[in-house]
Amino acid sequence: MRRNAEILGVIAAGGVVGAEARYGLGLLIPDADVPWATLLVNATGCLLIGVLMVVLLELTAPHRLLRPFLGIGVLGGFTTFSAYAAETFGLLDDGRTALALAYLVATPITALAIAWVGTALARNVISRRRGGH
After folding, report:
1. Coil, strand, or helix at residue 32?
2. Which residues contact 109 (CB under 8 A, 6 or more apart)?
3. Domains in the chain: how many in total?
4. Which domain range does residue 61 map to?
5. Across the chain, which distance is largest between two alpha carbons, in Å?
6. CA-to-CA distance for 37 and 25, rounded, in angstroms?
């Protein structure tokens, strides 16, 4: 029971950090007809998740709470797929069906592709540093 409480605690703490970072980034990106801020946040978060998982699983022997803190907490709080869903419905409500459908399809494809890119980049960097080309 104590172990679960520790994990939930670090996830919650990381979630606060990630959500605050997302909010700050959202303030820097002006509102537009297309929800660019959410798309950028989700793509950035997925890139970082790809990099993080390679670093934590292939390069280091991290503390058992680091992956839940960073991967689920910080990056889970940073990415915002609930906003993506709400914005998709908002576009539909505004009668912008084509944009809503494009956003609906493009976001998960972008997220998966950019997570793969982050993983590939991290593995490439690690390989080069280890002497493999």
Report:
1. coil
2. none
3. 1
4. 2-129
5. 55
6. 8
